[in-house]
Design goal:
The complex is a heterotrimer. Chain A is about 65% helix and about 0% strand. Chain A contains 9 helices and no strands. By secondary structure, chain C is mainly α. A two-stranded antiparallel ribbon of chain C has the order 1-2. In chain C, strands 3-4 form a two-stranded antiparallel sheet. In chain C, β3 and β4 form a beta hairpin. The longest helix of chain C has 29 residues. Classes of the chains: A mainly alpha, B alpha+beta, C mainly alpha. Chains A and C meet through α1, α2, α3, α5 and α6 of A and α3, α4, α7, α12 and α13 of C.
């Protein structure tokens, strides 16, 4: 058990946590009431994944930090999530474009991690793989409808895909080769073609174009984030931090 | 703008039981109706299988016809096993 | 008109629902007298139908608007466990709104029309949701007091004469049993926490106690629709009876929490077998109903914005469905 191992799990945990935080915004704001319920289900799945992964990261770290210590008492430089998930998503097309990419990546990732040599991680992934399969499906249904719906929705969906695309590459950033060799982590070079292939097929079916855009500057896994994450964390953490040591 | 149509939702709560009507929802098409039904009506493990049916496709009997439809069955008591006398001591009948 | 979780009443100056007439269909009266359930395709008196549509719709609107005061704290819940519970609870409220709109639609109205009436202010929602949620403890107070009051109102509705409404309420009540308990648990944790947490809990109870009592509507002699609703088997108990039941339940629970209720007149009355309590200030309630509550404008603006911002999405889904249906070999499913 090395710090790289804890850091790897922490990155996946933060991805899920920050996604859930963004998804929670939609509850009471969705385009139709049925969709409020659907997005809440997805957010709850992501939050559940985040909690078990954070708890696992805490135990790997071995300093006695639990899920809430890690969620509420780290600053943005200590968060390890990719930038894809941290930017605002108050547009429905952006939300669906991002969910398509993120959930497809999670689906491929968790399918591999379900056989990880880290048994806890394998357990979490084995459960999550079914959840994210539903997220992929939900995103796909909406990307199809928006991409191949009205002229306006097609345009908005394409704009959203273009906006998310530069942040896709960071999902396939390098992972400590020792973790891959030990069968703990998934090899990002294996995930990349699988994820991009699946996403590309959905975009094509939705009459959308796969963008040719340069990747954005990465760094989320090293704690170098966009300016948005600080505000997200300020909102999420302020109450806990105002009452250090309190139970809720 | 046209509103999304109404769908009636039926849930099979577990294997071996029939689908039972649980309510309705709105969805633009059958695929979304099925997914919305999953999200709305099976959040607490209420089901293992779902049907969605366009509400407009359901043909229902009318209460006006209820007398003609259902009352004639009332006097056919010979359709029920309790109508018959079984002699004392006869089993498995 | 405002109705609170199945409690229908009229503000002063508004016209009450049309009184009962003797020309109700024979089959309908026979059903009511036999405590039978009325079903959608039965021959219903217009006034019964209209009363139900309004009551169920306003009940549904209350669930939908009720997502906002608690949704306000999802991003700030102080632990991940609390965040998950709160998300699930606010999601349930959307679900309950949907079950209720579905029940209303069995009466021949469209949900889109009902939502239009909400958005244009022609139909109301429960006044309680026009109060702001200022601290985390408000999540506790809403769960314990507001959901507690709602449950007292809603349980009798499970036996409402209109079948689809009663069935929706059975589902809602079953799911809501966790709502009140999680609220109580929040307050219990706070009141046994740090002094600052306990003060936060007391402050929330102080602010939500009286508005919760108002949820049961005006006193019986000032509630013109109640008698008719009771005759129709929509309402089973009077406003004052339900309010009393709620107070009797809340007083010992407050003691268990170690919190006080902001009413010096609360005391056990041996003769009545109930708790006496102070007079509710209904002028405040009527002001909130008229639109002058602390958050009326914000709640409506939030709801209308969500609806309008989503219009292009709903339209795109229609367009896609049309294209799919027109494609050669298109299947129903």
């Amino acid at each position: 058990m090395t710090n790289a191992h804890a850091d790897y799990v922490l990155g996946l945990a933060d991805d899920a946590l920050v996604s859930a935080q963004r998804m929670g915004w939609w509850i009471s704001r969705a385009p139709q009431l049925e969709e409020d319920v659907a997005l809440a289900n997805i957010g709850l799945d992501q939050l559940g994944q985040a909690r078990t992964l954070l708890a696992h990261a805490g135990s790997l770290e071995g300093e006695g930090r639990g899920e809430d210590d890690l969620a509420y008492f780290r600053d943005e430089r200590d968060f390890r999530n990719v930038k894809l998930v941290e930017r605002p998503q108050t547009d429905f097309a952006v939300t669906m474009a991002r969910l398509l990419v993120f959930a497809t990546w999670q689906a491929e990732l968790y399918a591999v991690l379900a056989h990880s040599s880290d048994p806890t991680l394998a357990g979490v992934a084995g459960k999550a793989v079914k959840e994210v399969a539903y997220h992929v499906d939900h995103a796909r249904q909406w990307v199809l409808r928006l991409g191949d719906g009205t002229d306006e929705s097609h345009l908005r969906m394409q704009v959203a895909v273009d906006a998310e695309w530069p942040f896709v590459e960071e999902l396939f950033g390098a992972v400590d080769p020792a973790l891959v060799a030990d069968g703990i982590a998934a090899d990002p070079t294996v995930l990349r073609p699988a994820v991009l292939g699946r996403v590309g097929r959905v975009l094509g079916e939705a009459t959308l174009t796969v963008p040719h855009l340069a990747p954005a500057v990465a760094g989320g896994r090293e704690g170098l984030h966009t300016e948005h994450l600080g505000f997200l964390l300020a909102e999420m953490q302020h109450l806990s931090r105002s009452h250090p040591g309190a139970s809720w | 703008m046209r509103d999304w149509p109404l769908w009636e939702v039926f849930v099979r709560s577990r294997r071996g039981l029939s689908h039972v009507h649980v309510g309705s929802l709105h969805a633009p098409d059958a695929e979304m109706a099925l997914r919305n039904a999953r999200d709305l009506y099976t959040r607490r493990q209420e089901g293992v299988s779902l049907w969605v049916v366009p509400a407009a496709e359901i043909v229902a009997s009318s209460p006006d016809e209820a007398d003609a439809f259902f009352d004639p069955a009332a006097d056919k008591i010979y359709r029920h096993p309790t109508f018959y006398d079984v002699p004392e001591g006869v089993e498995h009948l | 008109m405002a109705q609170v979780y199945g409690n229908d009443f009229t503000a002063p100056g508004e016209t009450p629902a049309r009184p009962a007439t003797s020309d109700e269909p024979e089959t309908f009266r026979a059903l009511l007298e036999g405590e039978g359930r009325v079903e959608p395709r039965d021959d219903l008196p217009d006034a019964y139908r209209r009363t139900l549509v309004r009551q169920i719709a306003q009940h549904a609107h209350s669930e939908i608007i009720g997502m906002q005061p608690e949704g306000n704290w999802i991003s700030r819940a102080p632990s991940l466990r609390r965040k998950a519970i709160l998300m699930a609870k606010v999601q349930d409220e959307a679900g309950h709104g949907l079950y209720l709109y579905a029940a209303a639609e069995t009466l021949g109205v469209d949900r889109a029309d009902l939502l239009d009436q909400l958005h244009s202010g022609r139909q109301k929602y429960s006044s309680i949701f026009n109060y702001p949620t200022l601290t985390w403890a408000d999540m506790g107070a809403i769960g314990w007091l507001v959901d507690g009051a709602a449950i007292v109102n809603q349980v009798p509705l499970c036996r409402c004469s209109y079948g689809p409404y009663a069935r929706a309420m059975i589902r809602v009540c079953k799911e809501e049993s966790f709502h009140q308990r999680q609220g109580f648990e929040i307050l219990h944790t706070l009141s046994h926490g740090t002094p600052a947490q306990k003060a936060m809990a007391q402050d929330a109870v102080d602010r939500y106690w009286w508005p919760s009592l108002m949820m049961f509507g005006p006193p019986d002699d000032d509630s013109p629709n109640s008698a008719q609703s009771m005759a129709w088997g929509i309402k089973r108990f009077s406003n004052d009876d339900l309010r009393q039941r709620f107070v009797d339940m809340a007083v010992p629970q407050a003691e268990a929490l170690g919190l006080t209720l902001p009413d010096p007149e609360i005391r056990w009355n041996e003769d009545r077998g109930h708790h006496d309590f102070g007079e509710v200030d209904f002028t405040e309630l009527f002001e909130v109903i008229k639109g002058n509550g602390p958050c009326n404008a914000e709640r409506m603006a939030h709801r209308v914005r969500a609806h309008e911002d989503g219009a292009w999405v709903r339209e795109a889904a229609n367009a896609y469905a049309d294209k799919q249906a027109a494609r050669p070999g298109a299947d129903v499913a």
